[in-house]
Amino acid sequence: MKAPVFVIPGIGSSGPNHWQSLWEATDPSFTRLELADWDHPECSTMVAAIEEQTSVLAVPFVVVAHSLGCLAFAHWASKCRPQIVGALLVALPDPTGPRFPSDAIGFSKVPLKTMPFKTIVVFSDDDPFSTSDFSMACAQAWGSSSISLGKAGHINAASNLGHWREGLYLLDELRSPNIIVPG
Q1: Residue 54 and residue 52: Cα distance in Å, rounded?
Q2: Which of 47, 68, 104, 166 has the greatest number of CB atoms lying within 10 Å of its CB?
């Protein structure tokens, strides 16, 4: 049996054509983080919401986070003892970068300690909100595998990935109990 999935979107909550939304629409074991204000997210509010909403999930579970959701996840995972099988962290933005959204508050000082579960960081070489160096540095600090998609923008709906089958394969690796993902 595959582990349930907790979806942590980025700012704006990943619209209907985003791969997270497409995955969620086809699998009832997915649960999406709910926030009152996705356009003006605060790290502490997101962390509290993640803690509250994951406390009722069947454990262990897998997290799939995109963009700002990756930062919120890192802050939450550094403070809590979640029962997680693994996490797929996609398009990690640099909170000190010039294009980081000014409406996103409290995400700087990214926790950089090893995560005690399997993680995969997926990044793009031309992400307007990050750099490959930042993504790889976080992946190394967290003990994550890292995968570059080459030039794929912010790995969102604008990247025209559709269901993003390669990403779903990575998620399935994390969800399957007998598959070992390098970390």
Answers
A1: 6
A2: 68
Q: What span, in angstroms and rounded, lies between the C-alpha atoms of 90 and 87?
A: 10
CA–CA distance, 142 with 151 (Å, rounded to integer): 24
Residues 4 and 61 sit within 8 Å (Cβ to Cβ): yes
Domains parsed from the chain with CATH numbers: 5-175 (3.40.50.1820)
pTM of the model: 0.94
Give the whole-angstrom CA distance, residue 14 versus residue 22: 10
Contacts of 111 (CB under 8 A, 6+ apart): 74, 75, 77, 78
Q: What is the DSSP letter of 42?
A: B
- Biggest CA-to-CA distance, the chain: 43
Q: pLDDT tens per residue, the chain (183 residues)? A: 788 999 999 999 999 999 999 999 999 999 999 999 999 999 999 999 999 999 998 889 999 999 999 999 999 999 887 789 999 999 999 999 999 999 999 999 999 999 999 999 999 999 999 999 999 999 999 999 999 999 999 999 989 899 999 999 999 999 986 544 444
